[in-house]
Structure formats: C-alpha cells, structure tokens
Amino acid sequence: MREVIARSREAFWSVPALIVVLSILVAQAALAIDHWADGSVGVVPDALLLGVDGSRAMLGAVGGAVLAVAGTTFSITISVIATASSTYGPRLVRNFMTDRRNQTVLGLFVGTFVYCMIVLRSITSQDENVGTEAFVPFFSVYGSLVLALVNVAALVYFLHHISESIQVGYLVARVRRECEQVVDRYYSPREEAGPGGRCTVVDDDLPGPTALVLAREAGAVTLLDETALTALAARHDVVVRMLVGPGADLLPGEPVAEIRGEAGAASLSEEVLDHVSLGGARTPTQDVLFSLQQLTEIAVRALSPGTNDPYTARNALAEIARPLQVVTAHPAPMTGRCDDNGHLRLVLWIPDGESVVDDVFDDLRAHSAREPHVVRAVVDLAARLHRTAPPELGRRLRTHADLLVEAWARDTQEFDRQRMRHHLAEAFARNEEAQDLSRA
Questions:
Q1: Which terminus of the chain has fewer Cβ atoms in its 10 Å neighbourhood, N or C?
Q2: Of residues 175, 120, 132, the one with CA closest to residue 292
Q3: Tens-of-pLDDT digits for all 440 residues of the chain?
Q4: CB contact at 8 A, 431 and 386
Q5: DSSP assignment string, 33-65
Q6: pTM for the whole thing?
C-alpha cells in the first residue's frame, strides 16, 4: 500500500482523477436534490427558471469552454516542463509534474466538463409519443454556472503560479525543501533511539550472514518499506542488512541484502524483495544523494557555457547549505531500526557525511574552477559547514576548499591568486576564532 501511495504522488494524473470522481458524485447529488425539489411549489423562483433549450445551451457553453481551457492549460504546462528540462536539467521535471496546484487546476477544468456532461444527459424534453415529461435540473444547471466562475478564478491563479514556478529562486527553494525532508529523516538527531525506532548498529554484535538476497530484475531502488522490513525480520527473529540504498541501480542477480540469523532464513529472500521497490529512475523520496544532486545540478548547469549564469549558481549554493549543514553536523546517521522490544532488526545503507561532502564538492570543483564569484561562494559554503562539523570532517571540507582554490589559481594572475587565498584563509580563520571563544 505504501508503494502505491508513493507512486500516486509522483503521477500527474492522480489528483485530476480524484477530482473527476468527485465531480461525478457532486453531479449525482445535485440531480438527486433536483428530483426531490421537482413538483415542490415555490422551491424555484419563476424569474430564475430555465427552459430545456436554455439549460442545454448553458451546460454546453460551460463544458465546451472549460475543456478548451484545459487543453490550453495542459499545453502551457508542457511548455514550462520543456523549458525547465533544457535550462535546469531533466531530473527537475518531476517537480513540475508532482506540483499539486498544477494538478488541482487541471483536475478542476476536467471535472467541470464531466459535471456538465452528466447534468446535460439528465435534461429531457416532453414527448407524448415516448411518454417522457420535461425535466430541467435547476440546481444542477446553476451549479455549472458557479463552477464556471470558480474555473475563471482558477485560470488566473494558474497563470500566476506557473509564471512564479519557472523562476529559478522559487524552483531552487522548492527543491531545497524537498531535500531537507529526506535529510532530516536520516541525519536529524531529533528522533531518539529506542524501541520501535532508530537504534545503533554494532557490527561485532550482529549474527553471521545465512542468506543473500539477490535482485530479480533490473532497475533503480526507489523505495524501501522500512516498517514492513522491520516487522518481517521481527516475525522470523532475524536481522536484515541492506547492501544497497535508495538510488542504487541494480542488475538481475546483484546482491540487495543479507539475512543474518537462523539457517532457515533463506526462504525470506522473496519477501524481502517484495518490500524493495524498483523503478526506471531515481526519486528523492528516500535518496539523500539524489536530492542533493538536484541542487548541485542547478549550480553546475548555470555555469555551463550555454547558460553562463554564476548568480544562479551562487543562489543554489546558498540553498544547499541548509540540508548540508544537517549532514555535516551529524555525519554518522543511525542506520539501525529496531522492533517494539528494542531488538535490532534492520540495518539500512545510508551514506555518511564524508561520502555526501565528497559527492557534492567533487562536482562543484569540477565545474566551478573558472568562475571567481562561484569559487568564493564554494569556499564560503565549506567554511560555513566547517563551523559545526566534527574535526575530521572539518579537515575534509578545508581540503576541498584548498583544492578548488588551487585549481582556479592555475590559470589566473598572481594578484587574483593572492586575493582568493586570503579569502580562503579568512573564511576558515573566523571558525577557529569562534571555536577558541567557545572553549574559553
């Protein structure tokens, strides 16, 4: 069930489909009210009564108009997606596809069309030969007029929102918020260890491996159902140690996990695989490196010769500092998951802070060594993270900053080299002064 919910969140059609179903129910409810009110004296004012032809004309006009607007809306969305794909990277397209506001507006247009068609079908003319009497659903027809006004407001809002969402500041901030969610899930110290939650893993205390879980098919790991895997291991009194994490690309027969415990645990392999979802592409739902890669990619693409926008790169570096600070301040995530009795049942594969830092700064160093403004921004980013990082990881951040400055200095003048090295020394010297004051 969790996999179905996760996939539905990624689907562009999920919200429109729900709104269409809701519109059918609303139409049936409105028609039921009209059938109840038909024949009740004084329920409908005479001045507001509509004939058969007038009702059909109104419903046809509203339904046709909103369907045309829905087509225009979809065209605008596709155009924005194409622009974002070429400018910011194809992996950011899902941010537009999963935007609930875009989905809701499109669903409202399609749902209004479905509502009008259902109500239009219920209007009948008097025909003595067939034996039918005239029926005009007053409340349902005027309900379409109310929906038309709501659609006009939704169209204005959609044009505002789509214009806002393509701006790089809005896009970077949204990606950063999504990144913070997955980073907080694995690196934040707010969730204490204990029964039914996270727990510390001591490798020497783990039982020996008794079975190896191999992949059945190829694909990228998109989701691990941690709760189900923990419950499965608890039922069979074993420990499941994941050898890959979300984002790993698997081939058939590659190791996925180890089962550690009783000798008969080999039969659990298929059940373990049932709780490991594979897809055609990585998603940031549980993939820490991919969520950070999206922000890094915005900065890297902004530095490409075709774009040449160092200010966008600096904006992306400012946003990536927030999730990275959580990772570097707590570089050793608690990878264990225990059952309700406090026994270790699941060991996840989560990259440590050093791996995350290397992944981000290696990309930045490879693409930003020619732009002095971005070099300064990367140095400042490393210095900011250095303030709260443990000593060993702090030295690694300083190494990345040194390597970047040296790479930039190879093709620059001596004057610029001295200024940049002075900036590097000052950025990290402020951290040392702050540490000395805190110790005092």
A1: C
A2: 175
A3: 555 555 556 677 888 889 999 999 999 998 888 888 764 445 556 555 677 788 888 888 998 999 888 888 778 777 777 776 676 666 666 677 778 888 888 899 999 999 999 998 888 776 544 445 677 788 888 888 899 999 999 999 988 888 887 777 788 888 888 888 888 888 877 655 555 677 777 776 777 777 888 998 998 998 888 888 988 888 888 888 999 988 889 999 899 998 887 655 557 888 888 889 888 878 888 888 888 888 888 888 877 766 667 788 888 888 888 899 988 888 888 888 888 888 888 889 989 889 999 988 888 888 877 778 888 888 889 898 988 888 899 899 999 988 888 888 877 777 777 888 888 888 888 766 655 555 55
A4: yes
A5: HHHHHTT-TTSS-GGG---HHHHHHHHHHHHHH
A6: 0.74
Is residue 133 within 8 A of residue 39, CB to CB? The reply is: no
As given in the structure block, the two tokens for residue 301 are 């693409």
Query: Which tokens belong to 30?
Result: 């409105």
Please give the Cα distance from 10 to 154 (Å, whole number). 22
